Amino acid sequence: MTSDALARAVDTMRQVRDRCVWTQAIDHRALVPYLIEESHELVDAIEGGSRADLREELGDLLWQVLFHTEIASRDGEDPFTIDDVARALVEKMERRHPHVFAGETAETPERVLELWNAAKAAEKRQRASVLDGVARSMPSLALAQKLLGKAGQVGVGAEIALAVHDAEEVGAVPESEEELGDLLLTLTAAAREKGWDAERALRERLRELESDIRDAES
What we know:
The chain is built from eleven helices and no strands. The chain is mainly α. This is MazG family protein.
């Protein structure tokens, strides 16, 4: 997108906010369901849509960003604009890519990740826990993967590793993403058969994992 096209999109959002009575009544919180919906539609376009679908859904998600920043620009106490958002983003990405912008060397993806994590840790020094900043609204499976990574950072995971080993011994660990999908569907079907809530079951277990992580940190 050219800068002219992006500027026009920003101006279009501003006019809609000024002149559309529905849009004028919307705030950040009221926009959340639309943001989630548009994000899921973008995922669908990436995984199974056409190039035209992808382009459209990226535009819809961009509209959400423009919408939020237009609302923010009119805040009476702490306003900011899309330029402020973009400026902060550029500064953060430059800090987190020192191998691109600051003379560091990274010949492997592993080294890139190491530099990224070091920069991120320096930015978040005020955080008291590795769990700070983890979005609890993530889907439970995505949250599980996130928390397992955090658990590894504080040395919580021996029991989980043992469980994986035991599962491997009986051939219960899938060897591909396709097999993983089959296994997850099988487990979900078993939960449904027994009248259990699979989502709740995982989230309750994740709360226990969070507690274990906080105990290890203290």
